[in-house]
Design brief:
This protein has about 1000 residues and is an alpha+beta fold. The protein is about 35% helix and about 20% strand. The chain contains 32 helices and 38 strands. The strands form ten sheets. Strands 2-3-26-25-24-23 form a six-stranded antiparallel beta sheet, with no helix packed on it. A five-stranded antiparallel beta sheet has the order 1-9-10-11-12, with no helix packed on it.
Length: about 1000
């Protein structure tokens, strides 16, 4: 039984918990089973769970009492408040503010662990993606507002609703969520991008930003502060015993080698790496250091997080973190160990299931020390294939995990009662600091007390905190630096600079820089520029370049761009790029680097970045064509200059740059010529079409160069001349490289038949039964065919439907328009075939389920690379294409059934980040591809061939998310059932 001592300590450290929503989510849903586990089978339609040894799991609530629970919060006496989704489209509900969600109040009156009483506490809510109970009131996210709900008359219904803050975005699932009261008594809240916030302060100004962030305010909504930013979606946070903030962050980085989501150690003033908005929000502090993850994971969609404070579980769980992982259908326990100034995480699966409809969105500790798991059910289908395909009715529920005593008795606390008192104790918890704690021999006590004094702004503790900057433990030095931000004076500067001089630990370096930002004046920072320590010079550059100083001189920065210390070089370059007015000061350095005999990769990047930073400077604009016209510039440098022009945002291009590109198109160096073609393509330069067309038909040139030239000119001159058509046919044939075949198919799909070439028979002969070339890609050209060859087109479309091709509505309109005039019966037959095949596809999934077990992964690897051709678009182990998701860890985050459905029905749903977009440019050109990354003022589209196109906002007329996958249909048709079994075994083994 949990003692009063433990419960009191838990309450003091973090009075209450919250929950919020985990999105954005990846389409990959899976289960990674690890560790010693026992099976607890639920009855009826309940999932079959595997749980850690010694534990049991049971349902605590579910339909009809609640439906689609998203998050929960414990109130007084163990009352549970549950935020419930409407079960509808989350994005539309947020954008339209439809107010169809609610919060229910659950009670367990007999203490048996089941909430047998439920009533609606508050309704007409937008999307309450965060709840927390505090001092008799329920705080709730109600975008665009943060509200407080109170039950004044005690009837279980909220009769008072007050708006504390307003101005939170509500266009996406990154809106307000993650409400938590911290040990300092402040309310913390999380946000993602692109929703952002614009919150009015008491002085009439606004706290605003677009980057995902952690904010905090007092319980009455006053004194709103920005804690940290730069997140794509910081989901939820909790506090360690010594006050560190640990959060769950989805899309910590763009997916690479199968890794994407992260646990993060959040420090005040910190900027985290993914979000592009963070780099442009110059009104917020920047230390110059992008902070790292604590632990990185596949696309598991980390959601709720809680630190275990109770005593029902064995001692090894004390202070461990539990996270709900939506995509992976599991709850994981994380045991953090000290590592320098932060932690390492040792992870173990705690609750898992293969059930495709179990989606844990939250996890929390109940009053008796058991753990509650919130399963939101199957309503969220935006990036979840099985939910969309099967239209699963699962409405979720709440489960309780309890520890079983070894003697077979019921688990302690099984009656869900508060533990009895067990005496008093004095604990130096963060909300009860004692000066003596700063000199304790226990480093955890010291760090916790330092942070507590820091949040209070206790200036009297400056002396002891300064001494802690030389403590033997890095995490104590970090806590002291964080505290000095509010407790320090100018007397602290010497100690802060001394601690920073040799610093290499990123979190500690950041915290020391933030303290200097708060305490050091301009003359002090200017003196630091002359300090021999690169770290202090770096800090001075960063701080002098932002408010309230903004007083750097160009020469102080330019000279450090070529410093020996790499970190100092990066900082100087980052500062220089913010000052286009410093072109004259930077020009000598740029010229020297331009003609340097050798440049390493870092120096090449520096030169390109400098040229882009000063691209609008007239002197710089003449430098590029002058260098290109010379004879002493190495070919690699010419390629670099052409790459720079391609990435430039100048429009229209300077005349000298056009001349330099044309000159390069005639170069005998194939690398220079190819980059010139790419630059022409990316910048859409129509004045050079004649040269490009000549390159495209020159049979002595490499296929890649010719295809790239055609990609540039074909949108403006789409007629398929005989020489071009013959070349594209050779590239789409099955003997060509996959990338060339996809590029040729894209080009043919955009082309028009010449008057002499309207018979697609030759093309159809090459692509009939092809698994790599999507029918949708070639459809626009095929529908232009005439004569006897068009009957072959109809047969090809019918055969494609047999293989699994399902055209979207826009394509059906194209087919209907083409066939209505001359072949209505053919259209009827085709649509009938498509409808019949669509129904069969869903039935086909069931027939393939038996193939999810028993295969040979090694043989499956061979079929993946060779027979199925998956490697043309997907990477595993660092090899393969880049059009589709990296599958290096797919077996850890996606269940076998989901893998099967994504192959059989590729357009039924999309992995988040790999949705297909149709883009219409202002010049009328249409592009289709996957948006792979966001850049300042633009986004980058990757087409089926792998080509990446950077599109500036002013080039784009319309962007539409398509319901058509770039993944071709019918991949499994090429494999026998046993080969399919092997392929599925291989994919499931990628963990």
């Amino acid at each position: 039984m949990m003692t009063f001592r433990h419960r009191k300590r838990a309450t003091a450290e973090l009075p209450v918990r919250n929950l919020r929503w985990p999105f954005p989510l990846f389409a990959f849903l899976a289960l990674l089973l690890a560790g010693r586990m026992s099976v607890g089978v639920m009855h009826g339609s309940e999932p079959s769970f595997k749980i850690a040894e010694g534990f049991s799991i049971s349902r605590a609530s579910g339909p009809p009492d609640i439906a689609y629970p998203m998050f929960a919060a414990l109130g007084d006496d163990g009352v549970l408040f549950v935020a419930e989704s409407s079960g509808l489209d989350l994005y539309q509900e947020l954008q339209k503010l439809t107010r169809r969600c609610r919060i229910s109040r659950l009670e367990d009156r007999d203490g048996d662990g089941v909430f047998e009483r439920a009533q609606v506490f508050a309704d007409q809510l937008v999307f309450p993606m965060g709840l927390v109970w505090h001092q008799g009131a329920l705080y709730a996210a109600d975008p665009p507002d943060l509200i407080v709900l109170k039950d004044r008359d005690g009837d279980g219904l909220a009769d008072e609703r007050k708006v504390l803050l307003t101005g939170f975005g509500h266009s996406d699932n990154g809106s307000l969520h993650g409400l938590t009261f911290g040990p300092d008594g402040w309310l913390y809240m999380t946000l993602g991008q692109p929703d952002g916030y614009k919150l009015k302060l008491l002085d009439g100004t606004f706290l605003e930003g677009k980057s995902g962030a952690l904010l905090r305010c007092r319980a009455d909504g006053s004194d709103i502060e920005l804690v940290a930013r730069g997140f794509e979606n910081l989901v939820e946070i909790d506090f360690m015993p010594s006050g560190e903030i640990i959060g769950t962050d989805n899309w910590f980085s763009m997916p690479e080698a199968g890794q994407r989501d992260a646990l993060v150690h959040v420090v005040e003033g910190g900027v985290y790496p993914l979000n592009a908005h963070a780099r442009t929000e110059r009104h917020h502090f920047q230390s110059g250091t992008l902070l790292p993850h604590l632990a990185i994971y596949p696309a598991v969609a980390l959601s709720g997080i809680t630190r275990y404070r109770g005593a029902q579980f064995p001692a090894r769980f004390r202070d461990a973190l539990f996270t709900a992982q939506f995509n992976a259908r599991k709850v994981v326990v994380h045991r953090l160990q000290r590592h320098e100034a932060t932690f390492r995480s040792n992870d173990e699966d705690f609750v898992t299931t293969d059930d495709p409809d179990f989606h844990p969105s939250d996890v929390m500790e109940d009053i008796d020390g058991s753990v509650l798991v919130v399963d939101t059910g199957a309503w969220y289908v935006h990036h979840c294939p099985t939910g969309r395909i099967r239209k699963a009715p699962a409405q979720g529920g709440i489960y309780r995990v309890s520890f079983n005593q070894r003697d077979g008795k019921a688990p302690s606390g099984s009656r869900r009662e508060k533990p009895p008192p067990a005496g008093k104790q004095t604990v130096h918890t963060p909300d009860n600091p004692d000066l003596a704690a700063l000199t304790s021999t226990n480093s955890e006590t010291v760090a916790g007390a330092a942070r507590a004094f820091g949040r209070r702004g206790a200036k009297t503790t400056e002396g002891p905190l300064l001494r802690l900057l030389s403590h033997s433990e890095a995490h104590v030095r970090l806590a002291a630096a964080e505290a000095l931000v509010r407790c320090g004076t100018s007397n602290a500067i010497a100690a802060l600079t001394g601690a920073m001089a040799g610093q290499r630990e990123p979190l500690l370096e950041h915290a020391l820089t933030f303290a200097l930002f708060r305490l050091a004046d301009r003359p002090t920072l200017v003196r630091l520029l002359e300090d021999p320590s690169p770290r202090l010079q770096q800090a001075a550059l960063t701080l002098l370049d932002q408010a309230p100083h903004r007083s750097l001189e160009a020469n102080a920065v330019v000279g450090r761009v070529v410093a020996n210390d790499e970190s100092l070089r990066r900082t100087a370059l980052a500062v220089l790029q913010k000052h286009p007015e410093w072109g004259a000061a930077a020009q000598p350095l740029i010229q020297e680097m331009m003609y340097r005999v050798e440049l390493n990769n870092s120096e090449r990047g520096t030169l390109r970045d400098l040229l882009l930073a000063f691209q609008n400077d007239p002197a710089m604009q003449t430098l590029i064509p002058s260098a290109m016209a010379g004879t002493n510039l190495p070919a690699s440098r010419r390629v670099l200059l052409l790459e720079t022009i391609a990435r430039s945002t100048i429009a229209p291009l300077p005349v000298g740059w056009l001349g330099a590109i044309e000159q390069a198109l005639h170069s005998d160096d194939l690398d220079v010529c190819l980059q010139a073609v790419r630059t022409t393509e990316l910048r859409r330069i129509n004045k050079l079409d004649a040269v490009l067309k000549d390159l495209a038909i020159r049979t002595n040139l490499p296929a890649e160069l010719r295809l790239t030239a055609l990609r540039s000119v074909l949108p403006r001159q789409p007629e398929l001349q005989p020489a071009i058509y013959e070349f594209l046919l050779t590239q789409i044939s099955r003997g060509a490289r996959p990338a060339s075949r996809l590029a040729a198919a894209e080009l043919l799909g955009r082309a028009r038949w010449a008057d002499s070439e309207k018979d697609p028979a030759q093309l159809l002969a090459l692509i009939q039964g092809d698994r790599l070339i999507s029918t949708s890609t070639l459809l626009p050209l095929l529908l232009q065919g005439q004569g006897a060859g068009f009957s072959a087109v109809l047969k090809y479309l019918s055969d494609s439907a047999e293989r699994g091709w399902q055209p979207v509505e826009k394509e059906m309109q194209m087919i209907r328009q083409r066939l209505s005039a001359e072949a209505n019966e053919d259209f009827t037959r085709l649509t009938s075939k498509l409808a019949q095949r669509a129904a069969q596809q869903r039935e086909q999934v069931e027939t393939y389920l038996e193939l999810l077990a028993g295969g040979d992964p090694e043989r499956g690897r061979k079929w993946f690379s060779e027979k199925a051709g998956c490697i043309a678009c997907h990477r595993t182990g660092g090899e393969g294409g880049v059009l589709g998701p990296d599958l290096a860890r797919v077996g850890a985050i996606r269940a076998g059934r989901d893998l099967l459905e994504s192959i059989l029905l590729p357009s039924a749903s999309f992995a988040q980040g790999y949705e297909t977009f149709g883009v219409v440019l202002r010049n009328g050109e249409e592009l289709t591809g996957v948006r792979v990354r966001q850049e300042d003022g633009a986004f980058v589209l990757r087409e089926a061939s792998g080509r990446e196109v950077r599109l500036d906002e002013d080039q784009v007329q319309n962007v539409e998310r398509l319901q058509l996958s770039l993944m071709p249909e019918g991949l499994l048709a090429a494999l026998s059932r046993e080969e399919t079994r092997d392929l599925l075994a291989y994919l499931q083994s990628l963990k």
